[in-house]
Write a structure and sequence with these properties.
The complex is a heterodimer of chains A (115) and B (110). By secondary structure, chain A is mainly beta. Helices cover 0% and strands 50% of the residues of chain A. Chain A contains no helices and eleven strands. In chain A, strands 2, 4, 5, 6, 9, 10 and 11 form a seven-stranded mixed beta sheet that branches. In chain A, strands 1-3-8-7 form a four-stranded antiparallel beta sheet, with no helix packed on it. In chain A, strand 5 and strand 6 form a beta hairpin. Chain B is mostly beta strands. Chain B is globular. The relative contact order of chain B is 0.34. Classes of the chains: A mainly beta (115), B mainly beta (110).
């Protein structure tokens, strides 16, 4: 257990539905990352928060995707009008505070299947 | 473009063998490099972190090296065990993000 919690662990949905994933990072970690991983590939960067500020977004994050971290603690990733290509594992991670970045702690991931 | 490549894509070895996993990266302006382990259907566990100013890190049977100038890192696993079977991922930090390789799937046969 890394201390990073993600919910739900699995989500099966029909195409066109909206889904939301939640990440609770380690409490003292002020930075938070979302990654997406498809089968046989390494994780791909989606977005990055420093406290409540979303500082960087990947071009992978289309306008159907939105991420928030309202109070600088937990974060949510919402996908609207899901498509089959959205099927993947969505991973949240947080590093220890400070620079350079230290060890990165990942959650167990939220697996999305879009039918 | 910042790319990370891992070779081989898969490796199968008998128990007890020493092995080397390779990682190469195209942009040498890195903050650090991390090696992760991922079990099927699970998240990633950090194994070793090498800062850009360091040459290697060791933890138990694992040793990771970093050569920034050539854009290469290796992960050496000594006396492999069946419990080492997993996917090993290399990730390079650039600015605010890590760029991952596709991983090496390792199988250690008993």
């Amino acid at each position: 257990d890394t201390g990073v919690s993600q919910n739900p662990r699995h989500k099966i949905t029909k195409r066109g539905q909206n889904v939301t994933f939640r990440c609770d990072p380690i409490s003292e970690h002020n930075r938070l990352y979302w990654y997406r991983q498809t089968l046989g590939q390494g994780p791909e960067f989606l977005t990055y928060f420093q406290n409540e500020a979303q500082l960087e977004k990947s071009r992978l994050l289309s306008d159907r995707f939105s991420a928030e971290r309202p109070k600088g603690s937990f974060s949510t990733l919402e996908i609207q009008r899901t498509e089959q290509g959205d099927s993947a594992m969505y991973l949240c991670a947080s590093p220890k505070p400070g620079r350079p970045t230290g060890e990165l702690f990942f959650g167990e991931g939220s697996r999305l299947t879009v039918l | 473009k910042q790319e990370v490549t891992q070779i081989p894509a898969a490796l199968s070895v008998p128990e007890g063998e020493n092995l080397v996993l390779n990682c190469s990266f195209t942009d040498s302006a890195i903050y650090n490099l991390q090696w992760f382990r991922q079990d099927p259907g699970k998240g990633l566990t950090s194994l070793l972190l090498i800062q850009s100013s360091q040459r290697e890190q060791t933890s138990g049977r694992l040793n990771a090296s970093l050569d920034k100038s050539s854009g290469r890192s290796t992960l050496y696993i000594a006396a492999s065990q069946p419990g080492d079977s997993a996917t090993y991922l290399c990730a390079v930090e650039y600015g605010n993000k890590l760029v991952f390789g596709a991983g090496t799937i390792l199988r250690v046969k008993s």
